[in-house]
Write a structure and sequence with these properties.
Blueprint (H helix, E strand, L loop, with lengths): L7 H18 L9 H14 L3 E2 L4 E4 L2 E3 L24 E10 L2 E10 L7 H16 L7 H14 L3 E2 L5 E4 L9 E2 L20 E4 L2 E3 L6 E4 L7 E4 L5 H6 L5 H14 L4 E2 H4 L12 H17 L3 E3 L2 E4 L5 E3 L2 E6 L2 E4 L4
Antiparallel strand pairs: 1-4, 2-4, 3-15, 4-5, 6-10, 7-8, 7-9, 9-17, 10-16, 11-15, 12-13, 12-14, 17-18
């Protein structure tokens, strides 16, 4: 059994802030609103209500599934055609994470912008897939049964469950803590989903569905197309400096990442302004070049990792809902509630 009792107040408080933020953000999902304004609204709401972002708030529009947040220049996602303004009929996924002293509430919803009502059935199916999983999450339930329940809810409504995105266990300061939560009928012998639901554990349950035929997610653009980074924990700024892998300024910036974000994901647009103080007279092109060089170096020594933005492999529309749950002897306690 995983002992999380001492931190349950933090887990619940983070879940409450995450849910309130997600619900409040629906009010700004209106025609003509820039994507960046939606993201900044959500992150301001988190801070105003006593939390910190556990990861950058992400937005997925139509076939974009996950892991995209704007950069400081507000550039469009790689492989995306069009601007970043919400349009009537857009199918939007918002994923909000909050932490309080490292204890994480992670939740997401899907919302149709405007009044076309083209995606009502898909939105309902995504929500029902999440709820079907949670209903079965009692201690000792095999993971393949959790996946089958989510997958069946999607299939019954005429949609494909996404097979290569899944939920995940949460631990303090660790967003993806080892155990994966399937969202499709993975089968009893699937090596990736062995074992059972564990009492006392915290899980993020987030089935995705699609109107596409493949049921698969693909990478968008280059390896850093998400604009999201994470300190890996494989090495430290001090060790890298002592080994001569980093110069003093690089080591200082790396230490800033450690102190501000621990090992939780952070946005490029949060960290980029750190270059303003050491390079006050640099123009944008020079500062961008310095940032690129720093990130390349920190990734090469395994201090940082980055992520692709993700989309449906055959451009189907993507739906998603997510809750964070705590497993008790009586079943799943939903933490991401208002």
């Amino acid at each position: 059994m995983v002992d999380v009792k001492d931190g349950m107040k933090y887990w619940r408080d983070a879940g409450h802030v995450a849910r309130r933020t997600l619900e409040a953000t629906k009010d700004v999902l209106t025609v003509g609103t820039p994507w960046k304004d939606v993201i900044e609204f959500a992150e301001r709401h988190i801070h105003r209500h006593g939390g910190s972002p556990a990861f950058p708030t992400t937005i997925g529009v139509n076939e974009i599934a996950a892991h995209f947040t704007p950069d400081h220049s507000n550039l469009e996602p790689q492989d995306w055609e069009g601007d970043m303004v919400l349009k009537n009929g857009d199918l939007v996924k918002i994923d909000v994470g909050v932490h309080i002293k490292g204890h994480i509430g992670d939740n997401a919803l899907t919302f149709e912008v405007g009044n076309k009502n083209n995606h009502t059935d898909q939105i309902k199916a995504a929500r029902e897939a999440r709820d079907a999983s949670i209903e079965l999450m009692h201690p000792g339930t095999p993971w393949y049964k959790i996946g089958a329940a989510a997958g069946q809810a999607s299939k019954d409504a005429g949609f494909k469950p996404i097979r290569n995105l899944c939920g995940h266990q949460l631990k303090p300061w660790v967003l993806h803590a080892g155990v994966s939560v399937p969202s499709y009928a993975c089968g009893k012998e699937n090596q990736g989903f062995r074992g059972t639901v564990e009492s006392g554990s915290i899980y993020a349950v987030e089935p995705f569905n699609t109107t596409g035929k493949s049921g698969m997610i693909a990478n968008m653009g280059k390896h850093n197309s998400s604009n999201i980074y994470r300190v890996t924990g494989f090495t430290t700024s001090r060790k890298a400096r002592s080994k001569g892998q980093l110069k003093p300024l690089g080591a200082q910036l790396a230490r800033n990442f450690e102190e501000r974000y621990n090992t939780l994901p952070f946005a490029e647009r949060w960290a980029y302004p750190m270059l303003e103080k050491p390079f006050p007279d640099a123009d944008e092109a020079s500062r961008q070049s310095k940032w690129n060089a720093l990130v390349k170096k920190l990734i090469s020594i395994r201090f940082l990792e980055t992520y692709h933005a993700l989309k449906c492999s055959d451009n189907g529309m993507i739906g998603q809902f997510e809750h964070t749950v705590h497993i008790t002897d009586g079943g799943a306690e939903i933490l991401t509630v208002e």
